[in-house]
Design goal:
mainly alpha, 7 helices
């Protein structure tokens, strides 16, 4: 008896569960499968390009099968994936550069000194989030390109997968960037809400000649939530890479010498 294939749902990710726990407003309509929405995400130019790719792969299937010209060491690939993931996680949680030549990303100070300009107060956090997102994009794109190169040296099915991954990356990359940037917008709204309450409490403390409130009561927790959000985002960004590695190692369970 075969086990039913589990299909990915657009609503079934740790990142969305996390955002819901944080109180962010989410689309709570009935979950749909990724395949059902893919046609809505691709415009006519993407559809034409995808059809051309499918036609090309059909011709490849009709041609004589090509033998793989590369041997896969599954253990090395999985170790490489784990190293990249751990390096990016350490960058998010500790600020350690994930690779040579990349800059350290410092977490903004968890204390705001009055007076605070509400229009610019979030700017250090916006730069912090954006820097990590660009860093993840750069490091993962390099690894993904290396895996496609390996697929290109494999048999016909591997080559087709590499071509399809490159095409889908080009088609959906901008959409992914736009969607993930909403994470920053969610945190900015939360920051502004808490800052507004903080400024009001500070004014009341000044008027009543009482101790000024500290941002320590809310800002460190928000910074921690930002890190958690970035870690969930990292997991999503790594899913295509994990898929390529699974494909490369599917018939290579034992490491080659």
């Amino acid at each position: 008896m075969t086990r039913a294939t589990s299909r990915a749902s657009l609503h079934d990710t740790p990142l969305l569960h996390f955002l819901g726990q944080q109180g962010f407003v989410l689309d709570t309509r009935e979950p749909v499968e990724v395949g059902q929405k893919l046609s809505d995400w691709l415009d006519f130019r993407h559809a034409i390009a995808l059809q051309g790719l499918l036609d090309q792969t059909e011709l490849m299937n009709q041609a004589p099968a090509q033998a793989a010209s590369i041997r896969i060491n599954a253990q090395v690939l999985h170790e490489r994936f784990d190293n990249v993931r751990h390096a990016l996680e350490r960058s998010i949680t500790q600020g350690v550069p994930p690779a040579l030549g990349l800059a350290r990303i410092e977490t903004p100070a968890p204390e705001l000194l009055l007076p605070v300009d509400p229009k610019t107060a979030f700017e250090p956090f916006r730069r912090y989030l954006g820097a990590h997102q660009r860093q993840m994009d750069s490091v993962i794109a390099k690894l993904r390109a290396q895996l496609r190169s390996m697929l290109g040296k494999g048999d016909t099915q591997w080559q087709q997968l590499g071509m399809l991954d490159a095409a889908m990356d080009a088609m959906l990359g901008d959409r992914q960037t736009r969607l993930l940037s909403r994470l920053n917008t969610h945190f900015e709204k939360r920051f502004n809400q808490l800052l507004k309450k903080h400024i009001k409490a500070s004014q009341e403390a000044h008027e009543n000649d009482t101790e000024q409130p500290s941002t320590d009561t809310w800002l460190p927790a928000l910074c921690q939530a930002m890190q958690t959000g970035l870690l969930h985002e990292l997991a999503i960004r790594l899913q295509p890479v994990q898929g390529l590695i699974d494909a490369l190692t599917h018939n290579n369970k034992k490491p080659t010498p």
